[in-house]
């Protein structure tokens, strides 16, 4: 049973847009606690794959399971998020006018009015949770600063922290280091590595050096299916991968 031990199980997933197959019988298995990197040239289907997992796009055929038994194709987008699959988009969306702490406080709630949330007193356990996340994302010293004055990298970490407030089981992360300084890139690698184990991560990234620094296993997408999987060394020396990237 291939579903044993997997947190995400996609089998023979196909998605067509006006007859064009953005995903073509794609199969992907993510183990519990794993950090997997997803690479592939533009148009390979990476975004569509993320959209299928979060329920934004419904495949024409195939199976998508979360854990052993949860059929994601039977759930809508909010239900999938509620079940513990979250997505970090490339552009950070934090509330500039609020402090770092308040941004994390807001992230405690999902549906109620965000502004009402800030008027209630936090429970001690909620406060502890925020402190814990502040430590994880390395922004404890900035807790009382307005998010608007954070650097680009710090804003990205804050947004990761906001997602962590919901205690997700799976985090889908879209190009986390775009626009970051070298130092911020190193810190982001450490942060993502610290999250694996307890959670599973699927990271879409173009920077191969960064991929090498975080991922034990890399999946290469091409024309809507998995071209190959393996360590960064294995995939980088694969003639098919070289051909796809060089367009030979
Ligand atoms: P990647 O993220 O790897 O660059 P995408 O998943 O965005 O690839 O796209 C895969 C293919 O599907 C591309 O050729 C893209 O043009 C096409 N595509 C994606 N979304 C749509 C859509 N909503 N309508 C039509 N074509 C789409």
From TrEMBL:
InterPro entries: ABC_AA/LPS_Transport, ABC_transporter-like_ATP-bd, ABC_transptr_urea_ATP-bd_UrtD, BCA_ABC_TP_C, P-loop_NTPase
Domain of life: Bacteria
Keywords, alphabetical: ATP-binding, Nucleotide-binding, Transport
CDD domains: ABC_Mj1267_LivG_branched
Keyword set includes ATP-binding: yes
Keyword Nucleotide-binding: yes
SUPFAM superfamilies assigned to the protein according to its UniProt record, in alphabetical order: P-loop containing nucleoside triphosphate hydrolases (SSF52540)
GO CC annotation terms, alphabetical: plasma membrane
GO molecular function: ATP binding; ATP hydrolysis activity
Occurrences of domain ABC transporter (ranges): 8-248
Listed name of the protein: Urea ABC transporter ATP-binding protein
Species of origin: Methylocucumis oryzae
Taxonomic placement: Bacteria, Pseudomonadati, Pseudomonadota, Gammaproteobacteria, Methylococcales
């Amino acid at each position: 049973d291939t579903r044993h031990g997997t947190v995400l199980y996609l089998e023979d997933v196909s998605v067509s847009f006006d007859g064009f197959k953005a995903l073509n019988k794609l199969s992907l298995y993510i183990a519990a606690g794993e950090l997997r990197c997803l690479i592939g040239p533009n148009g390979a289907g990476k975004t569509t794959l993320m959209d299928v997992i979060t329920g934004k796009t419904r495949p024409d055929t195939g199976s998508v399971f979360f854990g052993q038994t949860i059929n994601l194709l039977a759930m809508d987008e909010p239900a999938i998020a509620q079940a513990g699959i979250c997505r970090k988009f490339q552009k950070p969306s934090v509330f500039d006018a609020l402090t770092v702490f308040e941004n994390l406080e807001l992230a405690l709630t999902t549906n109620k009015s965000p502004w009402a949330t800030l008027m209630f007193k936090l429970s001690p356990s909620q406060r502890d949770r925020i402190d814990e996340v502040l430590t994880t994302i390395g922004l404890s010293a900035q807790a009382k600063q307005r998010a608007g004055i954070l650097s680009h990298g710090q804003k990205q970490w804050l947004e990761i922290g906001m997602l962590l407030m919901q205690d997700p089981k799976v985090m889908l992360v879209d190009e986390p280091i775009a626009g970051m300084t070298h130092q911020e890139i190193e810190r982001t690698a450490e942060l993502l590595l610290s999250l694996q184990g307890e959670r599973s991560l699927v990271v879409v990234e173009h920077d191969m050096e960064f991929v090498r620094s975080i991922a034990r296993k890399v999946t290469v997408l091409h024309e809507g299916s998995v071209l190959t999987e393996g360590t960064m060394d294995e995939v980088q020396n694969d003639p098919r991968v070289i051909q796809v990237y060089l367009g030979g």
